[in-house]
Request: fold
Amino acid sequence: MLRTYRGSCHCGTVQFEADLDLSQPTFRCNCSICRRNRFWPAVARDGGFRLLAGGDKLTKYLFNTRKNEHYFCSVCGVRPYGIGTETPIGRMVGVNLGCLEGVTEEELSHLPITYVDGMHDRWQSVPEYTAHL
Reply:
């Protein structure tokens, strides 16, 4: 069921709202950037994400194909979200679950996870190893 969540970076400078259905898969990826910063997103469809504060303190990082946008708070370094521009559902926002307010550890432990092998550009495949993701 779609629900509106509030979230922020660690220092609270970047604040947002996102319409998420946490009964749908969340994602863990082994690509170079997700693996390094332990990014665990839920998907907000285009129009389902609203940046409320801190836009001027965000740093955008582009790499490889330069199509996906990775945003970091320039104050605390946390990655609250990223924008996927070429996905099976079109443009979407990957919201970092660790940045959401009011989601308990128990709720997080029950979220469905889809593992993707971004390291080998096999986005529809599960990586050989997933326990560390």
Q: What stands out?
A: The chain has a mean pLDDT of 94.
